[in-house]
Each structure stands twice: as structure tokens, then as C-alpha cells.
Design goal:
By secondary structure, the protein is mainly alpha-helical. The chain has helices at residues 2-6, 12-29, 33-46, 57-61, 74-91, 96-111, 116-119, 123-143, 147-165, 174-185, 189-202, 207-219, 223-236, 241-253, 257-270, 274-286, 290-304, 311-326.
């Protein structure tokens, strides 16, 4: 996606820098979502439900009888592990060392993303806390100190109940889109198309499927059909950068620069991307609007710098058009 927006091949570092800037841009433009994001991250950190990324423990359970057991699950380990660690800290100060990895993992989850892969390293330390909890409970029972069990028991029941009560999120088609796009990027267009068409009907409000189907139609030479998909996407999300930019480029490559300019201009009001400036310069040049073309070529070279492979091309186009304007 980053390469598509830049219009060139990117290194892993360049792609990482791009998405980091995008993250901060979204947070800067929408500061109200920050507390909501943190609350959601906290919710999915304590939830028994596993959010699969490149590892899915629900999938593993299909091949393991032990993993199918209802207990002990993540909620159980967290419910006993957290109060167990608190008891351990009270009994021995050295138990603080067990909290360092948990705090570190929690910070990682809050800053980045919550997934089963990121959350799993916390489990061994919670299991140590679970062992401390069970050992203390057994000792209190043997000593007849039943009252000592009440507070940690209530805390454990509360944590377990909250963890189990958080139900899996309702699908909005995001995972299905990710799979369809993966097939598309592997040039397995047929599988990508089947998945996209199937889920476009299932999630009609998901703009991404319409955009992907537009790209597929474009790659297969069905320009009018691609335009229909992009129009649908724009009607659902008028301020979607990708839909406007793709629609502009589709018109531009179809020899309709006049129609392309409006969509490309709209995309640049949403996000200032260098490739959009270059595309607009080309569109204005093809409509013989030298002033507009020069303006956007200058914006492009200012945005990218001399290291960009298209920098010199843009400078040459400016020089040619300025010479033509003088004539």
C-alpha cells in the first residue's frame, strides 16, 4: 500500500517510516480517539479472547486435544496470576523482578497493538503468579485461615468474570479484506476477486472491497467497471484518499485528464502525497495548463528532494514548460 501511494519501490525502512508518520498524522488530526484506543487496548489485553495475528491459538487448538480444554485458559491464568503476584510482592520483595516483564509487555501492548503473539510472553510470569496464589490458598486452608482467602478470591473471580465477559469483536470485513488483498498482491487475481465479490455483498459498507474490486477490474482492462466500483466507494466515503486518488489515476490513464483533475485535487486535500502532486502535474500538462503543471511539479520536487528517482524528470519538465511559456 505504501509503495502504491508513493508510486515506486520502497525499502523496509522507508515503508516503516511512512506508516509511523501516518500513525502520528491520524492521532494528531483525531486526538479524541486516543483515550478510546487505549481503553480498547486494555480491554483486549485482559480479554480471554485471543486476537490472532501471525499466530492463532484457536487454530492450534484444532490440532491439539489439550488446547481444546476449557480450563486453564488465559482468563484463568490472569485471574489467579495477578493477585498471586501481588501476594508474592507482599511476601518477598524479590518478586518485583517478575513484574518487570509484565509491565514491559503491557507498555508494548498499549503503544503498538494487542495480539496473541504480543500477549503470550506475559503468560509464563502470570503462571508463576498462579502457582504462588494456589500455594498460599492451600497453606491457608491447611492452617484454617479461611478469612485470608476472601479478598484475593474475590479479586480473582472479578478478573476472571470481566475477562470472560468481553466477547469477540463483530467482524467488519477487515480480516477478509486482508486475505483478499494478500492474494491480489501475490498476483492471484482470481482468488482475490472471488473473496472480494463474496465479502462485498456480506459487508456492503466496507469501502476497501469496492476499491480492491476497482483495482482488479482495472488490471483486467475493464475500465468502466472499475470506475463504477470507485464511484461506489466515493459515495460511501467521500473523503477516502485511496478511492479519490485511484479514480483520478484511472481517468488520467484512460486519456481523461479533465475528469482526473477533480479527483486528484480532492485526494490532495485529504493527504499531501508527493505522487499525487506528480500525477496532478501530469494531468494539468495533458490539458495544456502549463501554469498548473509547473505549480505541481514544483510542489513535487520540494516534497521529495533530489534523492527521488523522479526528481530530475520533474525539473526537466518545469524547464521545458517555462521555455515554452516564454516563447
Amino acid at each position: 500500500e505504501a509503495e502504491y501511494r508513493f508510486g515506486r519501490k520502497l525499502s523496509a525502512h522507508e515503508a516503516s517510516v511512512f506508516w509511523r508518520k501516518e500513525t502520528f498524522r491520524v492521532l494528531r488530526e483525531n486526538p479524541r480517539i486516543i483515550p478510546v484506543l487505549f481503553l480498547n487496548k486494555l480491554k483486549w489485553t485482559i480479554a480471554n479472547y485471543e486476537i490472532p495475528m501471525n499466530q492463532s491459538y484457536h487454530l492450534f487448538a484444532e490440532f491439539s486435544g489439550v488446547d481444546k480444554w476449557p480450563l486453564p485458559n488465559y482468563a484463568f491464568v490472569m485471574a489467579l496470576g495477578l493477585p498471586g503476584l501481588m501476594i508474592g510482592l507482599y511476601r518477598r520483595k524479590k518478586a518485583w523482578w517478575l513484574m518487570i516483564p509484565i509491565v514491559t509487555i503491557m507498555a508494548t501492548l498499549m503503544i503498538f497493538c494487542v495480539s496473541s503473539r504480543f500477549r503470550m510472553p506475559m503468560v509464563p510470569f502470570l503462571m508463576i503468579g498462579t502457582g504462588i496464589f494456589l500455594e498460599c490458598v492451600w497453606r491457608w486452608i491447611k492452617e484454617g485461615n479461611w478469612q485470608n482467602i476472601i479478598l484475593p478470591g474475590l479479586v480473582a473471580i472479578t478478573i476472571f468474570s470481566i475477562s470472560m465477559m468481553i466477547s469477540p469483536p463483530e467482524s467488519d470485513g477487515h480480516k477478509e479484506f486482508g486475505l483478499a488483498k494478500a492474494f491480489y498482491l501475490r498476483n492471484d487475481i482470481n482468488k482475490a476477486k472471488i473473496l472480494a465479490l463474496e465479502n462485498e455483498k456480506k459487508y456492503p459498507e466496507n469501502v476497501d472491497f469496492h476499491i480492491l474490486l476497482g483495482r482488479i477490474a482495472k488490471s483486467e482492462g475493464r475500465t468502466n467497471e472499475a470506475m463504477t466500483y470507485y464511484q461506489t466507494a466515493i459515495s460511501l466515503a467521500p473523503h477516502n484518499f485511496t478511492a479519490n486518488y485511484d479514480m483520478g489515476m484511472l481517468n488520467l490513464n484512460a486519456g481523461k485528464p479533465e475528469q482526473a483533475i477533480g479527483y486528484l485535487e480532492k485526494s490532495l486535500t485529504i493527504r499531501r502525497y508527493s505522487i499525487g502532486m506528480l500525477s496532478l502535474a501530469r494531468a494539468y500538462e495533458e490539458t495544456s495548463n502549463r501554469k498548473g503543471a509547473i505549480n505541481y511539479y514544483k510542489q513535487f520536487i520540494k516534497a521529495v528532494g533530489p534523492d527521488d528517482p523522479k526528481y530530475e524528470m520533474a525539473r526537466k519538465r518545469i524547464a521545458i514548460m517555462e521555455t515554452l511559456s516564454e516563447d
